[in-house]
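Hey,
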Amino acid sequence: RVLQQVIEQKTHQVNERVKELTTIYKINKLLQNENLEIKEVFGQMLGLIRSGWQYENYCETRIIFDGQTFISPGYQISEEKQVATFELADGRQGSIEVIYTKEMPAAFEGPFLKEERDLIDAIAEIVEIYFNKATQQRALSESEAKFRGAFEHSATGMGLVSIEGRWQSVNKGLCEMLGYTEAELLELTFVKITHPDDVHTDIEHREKMIRGEQDHYQIEKRYIHKKGFIVWVSVNVAVIRSDEKPMYFVVQVENITSRIESQLKFRNLVEKSPVGVYIFQNKHFVYVNPAFVQQSRYNEQELLELPLTRFIHEDDLSKVVENIQMRLDQQQDESRYQIRVYTKSREMLWIEIHGAATIYEGLPAVIGTMVDVTHRVKMEIEREKILEDIIQRNRDLEEFSYIVSHNIRAPLATLLGLGNLLKLDLPDDEKSQVVQGMGECADRLDQMVKDVTKILDGKEN
């Protein structure tokens, strides 16, 4: 009799475990059906859960997820219940609840078995894993769709390149940029369309990514258009790995030909200009052209390290600092003025500065020209000196005219008057007085002429 009871008990326990395993199996199979919506999944799950509990005929279930509630037909509020919760990676939460509609014998947890606690927790974990996986797959699909849309419709050239360097996928932007059809590019390697002088740098970076030394790089390089001309590009390359193993490269290509050609034209113009050109930033020159170097007698490196106090005449330093600051503060777009500078041999030069605000390597700076006007300034100084001499001579002539008018004319008039008296029939004694007077007037006139001569001699000296 006792043996019979033990056998029946063990058989019952085995049957219960079989029911639980069957329930888990059926729920897993249900969740593998990707064609079902959430409402259908949880609706079918309600019946499957009930079949796993000891008192299936009195068992009802409720599932709450993401604001929705799913209940079996006979569900009611009951104190005889088991609950397991789950939370997804995206923050959504849910719970699975099993109740008995009739009071049952006490077991491990109310009327529920210990194995049933394990079962409901296992079901909650399965649901959590399934929906996390579904969410991740959906996010991955959405991400892939977005990437595909961005890839296909991007104005920037984009492509996927194999580890061996062959194009695996290219977008319309890259095809139009290089003049090839998609089929033609997919038959080529990146080496075939890269300028020979730029291949080595590209390969060096890619080998570092393959070895795991870097994950991405950016360079400016030259592609060769299908028609043979050069296309300057800015290339951003990132490696995609799986389990630390490099799978392929994602390449983004921007056409910068116009910018590079403009830079080359500007550089050629500046480098060959007879006028000194400079860029000033952070209290130092950061660029000087050959003409600037030649004018200053310093070499390029010396100029880049030269403080303004060593270069600018001390009396003009404050003017230069003020003008630079006004342009950096955008109070003044440009300015033109003359200052004095010192060459390396400490020779002083007059230069005319023309400067304007600019951006250099992403930071505010001042760009301008320096023209040596020393000869012109010296000529102006000489002209001013000559002009001063002319003015002084005019003053001397005016003074001489005054002397002639006032000091010489009077005795000369007297002398003429006395001469007229001699023409009259005068007594001898009166004639003698007239002659004496004429002699005195002649002496005074002679002295005045000597005085004027001395004055003129002094001016000449």
